[in-house]
Amino acid sequence: MAAPAEEPPKKKQRNYRRDKPWDNPDIDHWKLEEWKDEYSPGAFVEESSFATLFPKYREKYIREAWPIVTRALGKCGVACELNLIEGSMTVRTTRKTSDPYIILKARDLIKLLARSIPVAQALKILDDGMHCDVIKIGGLVRNRDRFVRRRQRLVGPDGQTLKALELLTECYVLVQGNTVAAMGSIKGLKAVRKVVEDCMKNVHPIYNIKILMIKRELAKDPALANEDWSRFLPKFASKNVPTKKPLKVREKKPYTPFPPPQPPSKIDLQIASGEYFAPEVAKQQGAKDDAKRAANELPPPPSDAKPKKKRERPHKRKKDQSVVDVEQSEVSADELAAKIRERAGVEAPKPESKKKKRKREQREAVERAAAEAAAAALTTEPPPPLPSALLSPEDKAAKPKKHVSWSPDVVEPRPGLAVPHGRGPAFKAAQKAAKRVAKLQKQKQKLAKKAKKKKKKSKR
User: Which residues form the KRR1 small subunit processome component first KH domain (predicted)?
Assistant: First the structure.
């Protein structure tokens, strides 16, 4: 037969304490039991109520979601009221309420609804294992721009930092305005509050997230459950980043308790120079002399300064500059085309690309060469004879050939010059170039006639 287990010795202060029914090692004191109505059969003596305000932009959503809130709180025996005139939500206990703590849960529910949390997520606060915390971050940073940057740092790019924080703490976190609302366990809410407050104190959330990841891995090892984890956690040293130095460093003057001497006034200077006692005529002459001296001391105007334009008078207006005088000045083909296009009301062509420009230049070069070749081939003058000193004795003895005029059937090509024939592309290009030149000449003549007509009208 096994010997009975020895009872541990009782402490002195517990010698006269009676045993309670819950003094049992088999009972888990941290376990949250579900509330039953039989625990509190009677009604409450006093009525408890809580109210909270909500912003104007949440009014439409709360009005649409209020039937869902009323239905969920009605099951718990809590009455709720929505006042759109004052912009407030109120919850209160009724005679059907049995759970004394449910009114605090209802208070947290309306608080979360006012902080832009969706109603489906906010209703989870009515569960026993769910708690909430609303962290106020508006007063932690004075500078508004700095506050916005640090709040965005907490959210992270595409909400990645906030998502990592939610996964590590097993909490729901929402950053809205000047507050951060969190829902989860007590342990997770403490971690969320630390990360948020450190972020507002210019500590990047990634450092705390790294520490939470290490703690999560250490918690999986039962051998390290009761040990100190500080030796495993990283220690981040703060860096003092030097600020920019001012451009101008003012030299500190030695401190003197006496104020600086008062500068002399204009009358004091006149008395010192004796001008104050001079007659009025002498004073006026002295003022004129000072003005002349100041004018002579002025620096000369810079040579680069542009001369002032004279105001154009209506009876001495210049000739109409839009009329081009072809006889006085030569106009290029591009300028002429632009003038014609402007008068006709036709839009300018789009700027051509580099490839098109290169092709056009090659084509124009070919046409120019062809035009020169055609002009050289069409000439009827014979080539100039070489001087007798340069001729060989055989060339002198040979009879000089008679020059034959050019005909379309017989062409005598010069050495090194390609003469176009009637069917080749070079000949056609030469024809086109000749036509283009003739067309431009006609346009010049027309413009010259119009200009003459306008001159005659203006003279009349």
Answer: 48-128
Q: Both tokens of residue 328?
A: 């006085």
pLDDT per residue as tens digits for the range 39-84:
888 888 899 999 999 999 999 999 999 999 999 999 999 999 999 9
Between the CA of residue 58 and those of 132, 134, 175, 440, 459, what are the distances in Å?
A: 20, 17, 15, 75, 80
Specify the amino acid at residue 262.
Q
Alpha helices, DSSP H, located in 16-143? 59-75, 102-114, 119-122
Reply yes or no on whether the pLDDT at 193 is more than 90. Answer: yes
User: How far apart, in Å, are the Cα atoms of 424 and each of 365, 406, 413, 416, 421?
Assistant: 17, 18, 15, 18, 6
Cα(99)–Cα(362) distance, integer angstroms:
96
* Rounded-to-integer distance, Cα 176 and Cα 142, Å: 18
Q: Higher model confidence: residue 269 or residue 352? A: 269
Instruction: Determine the residue type at 128.
Output: D
Q: Is 264 helix (H, G, I), strand (E, B) or coil?
A: coil
Q: Is the dihedral of CA 333, 336, 340, 345 positive or negative?
A: positive
3-state secondary structure of 458: helix
Comparing 277 with 175, which gets the higher pLDDT? 175
Burial of 93 per CB tally in 10 Å (0-12, 13-18, 19+): buried
**DSSP per residue, 279-305:** -HHHHHHHHHHHHHHHHHHSPPPPTTP
